[in-house]
Every structure is written in structure tokens, then in C-alpha cells.
Specification:
Blueprint (H helix, E strand, L loop, with lengths): L1 H21 L5 H20 L8 H24 L4 E5 L1 H10 L12 E5 L4 H28 L4 H17 L7 H8 L1 H18 L2
Antiparallel strand pairs: 1-2
């Protein structure tokens, strides 16, 4: 009887957590900012081909790497009970727009960020971490898929691009996720960065 009660209690807690996570709040302002940012990210993806032809698979990899990263921040922050919305930032939009020019040899995707209102250091650190972690997980997923589909170049593109997004965001500078994670837990930051670098290097082998 006791075992049944514990199992029921565990299931009930899981369902409550799941329902809480599904209660995602947004606004027209956020949707507008996110739409503008996504269009710029798509433009950067198209710039690699000099806008000559559209590869929907390539664009899908670009857009999902960006969107899932940002939405992961938002979902976890809202799960913790915080207000959390994506906001485009002028300097980030300008940098991303410049990167969309085919003549630019280096590409930077930083059109904005998810703003959160968390005062708890541990929760704030986890919210910062989950963004790069989603890219890391997706990157390793693409890498494993490349062994199942060795003749598909998109698997390697997915692995390398997600690794690049994670590695860039893990840099411990300014407003990047890396600075927040580094301030929160240096061991976690180091382990995540080493894993990301390993993925980045392996995806090019």
C-alpha cells in the first residue's frame, strides 16, 4: 500500500510539473521581436549560398538552432515562475543584418535575448545553461545521425552549426550565457565548454 501511495504521489508531482511547464505566456511584442529576429537568422543562412538558391533543410537547421535555444531559456524561466520574453536588441539586429551580407567572411547571430526576472542565483544559472545545452544535445544528435546517414551533408551541418552556436554563447563575456554560467558555477561552465569544443572538432573530422 505504501509503495502504491509513493508511486501515485510521484506521478502526481510529475503531472503537476508537466502542466506547469506547459503554461507558456507570451505577448504580441515578443512574437513581433521573435519574428524579426528569425527572419534575420534565415537571411544569414541564405547568405552562405549568396542567396542563389534555397535549401529548406539548411534553413531549418539554422532556424531551429536559434529558436530552440531561445525558447529553452523562456520555458525554464517561466517554469520557475519568472516573467520571461524574447526582446530584439538594436545592436544585435545590426550585427546579424551585417552578417547576412554574402561578402562577410564571419557570421554572428545575436539579434536579441530572452529577458528574465530571476533573483535566485541557481535558477538564473540554470536558465542561462539550458540554452547552450539544447544546442549541445541537438548537435550530438545530428552527429550520431551522420553515422546512420553518412551521405547526407545536413547531418554534419547540423552538428557543426549547433556546436558553433553553443560555443559562441558559452564565451564568458558581456551579456552572453557563458558569463552568467561562469559566475554561477565555473565547473559546470568548463565541462559544458569542453563538451562543446569536442563536438565542434568532431563534426569537422
Amino acid at each position: 500500500m505504501q509503495g502504491d501511495f509513493v508511486g501515485h504521489s510521484t506521478n502526481s508531482s510529475f503531472l503537476k510539473s508537466l502542466l506547469k511547464a506547459m503554461k507558456i505566456k507570451s505577448s504580441k511584442t515578443e512574437l513581433l521581436h521573435l519574428s524579426i529576429a528569425t527572419l534575420l537568422v534565415m537571411a544569414v543562412g541564405l547568405s552562405f549560398n549568396h542567396y542563389r538558391y534555397i535549401s529548406w533543410q539548411f534553413l531549418a537547421i539554422f532556424v531551429t538552432a536559434f529558436l530552440i535555444h531561445e525558447l529553452a531559456h523562456k520555458f525554464l524561466a517561466q517554469y520557475y515562475g519568472s516573467w520571461a520574453e524574447f526582446r530584439a536588441q538594436l545592436y544585435g539586429l545590426i550585427i546579424t543584418a551585417i552578417s547576412a551580407l554574402p561578402i562577410m567572411p564571419f557570421k554572428f547571430i545575436a539579434p536579441g535575448a530572452v529577458m528574465v526576472g530571476l533573483s535566485d542565483k541557481n535558477k538564473f544559472g540554470r536558465v542561462a545553461l539550458i540554452g547552450p545545452m539544447t544546442n549541445l544535445i541537438m548537435g550530438f544528435g545530428f552527429l550520431m545521425a551522420s553515422y546512420l546517414f553518412p551521405y547526407s551533408p545536413y547531418m554534419y551541418v547540423g552538428a557543426s552549426f549547433n556546436a558553433w552556436i553553443a560555443m559562441f554563447n558559452l564565451l564568458p563575456f558581456g551579456v552572453l550565457d557563458g558569463q552568467k554560467i561562469f559566475d554561477w558555477n565555473k565547473v559546470v561552465w568548463a565541462c559544458t565548454m569542453v563538451s562543446t569544443m569536442a563536438l565542434f572538432i568532431t563534426s569537422y573530422l
